[in-house]
Specification:
181 residues; mainly alpha; 9 helices
């Protein structure tokens, strides 16, 4: 039987890569079943990483989420170039955007599309700060062939604000736990 200390060390080592994977999948709308926010908050609250480590994990989480959203954006942007040929190499990869769109639903897509058409990048940044609807603006942004640079800037800003909020919640939980003790 392994000792509990080594189990904790293994869990701490695996926590960050798992959180990053979940943020990437969440950015692609595929990870809505595994909410990365809950894992991130648990990691910050229970592991209590040093501030420098926390900043690095938060930045990497923003990047993972933005990359997931960019993947979704590119999937819906028919003019985007293929860098490594995934659409040709992976069976059914070209169907993924339409599967996601069907999963999101027509009514929700109409609302998201109207918001994006009206507010553009600002709507993208704001909705990236709201749980459950995060990442959905990537679909109309890709379909409208929105500027890749502007997409990445607004997406990253929204994701950064979201991670600041999650970090504050996690730190608040830690402060409450210390106060209760």
């Amino acid at each position: 039987m392994s000792d509990p200390a080594s189990t904790v060390v293994i869990l701490e080592a695996l926590a960050v890569p798992v959180i990053l994977l979940f943020f990437y999948l969440d950015g692609m709308v595929l990870g809505k079943v595994t909410p990365p926010a809950a894992f991130y908050i648990a990691y910050v609250a229970f592991v209590s990483p040093e501030m420098s480590t926390l900043v690095v994990v938060a930045i990497m989480s923003v990047i993972a989420s933005s990359l997931g959203q960019f993947t979704l954006y590119r999937g819906f942007n028919t003019e985007s170039p293929e860098f490594i040929g995934i659409r040709r190499a992976v069976p059914y990869a070209d169907r993924l955007p339409w599967i996601i769109r069907r999963r999101v639903g027509d009514k929700r897509m109409q609302v998201v599309t109207r918001l994006f058409e009206r507010f553009g990048g600002f709507a993208l940044a704001v909705t990236n700060t709201i749980p459950l609807i995060r990442s959905l603006m990537s679909i109309p942004a890709g379909m409208s062939r929105y500027s890749r640079t502007r997409f990445l800037v607004f997406s990253t800003i929204g994701n950064a604000v979201y991670l600041v909020f999650l970090t504050a919640v996690a730190e608040g939980i830690v402060d409450v736990a210390i106060f209760v003790r």
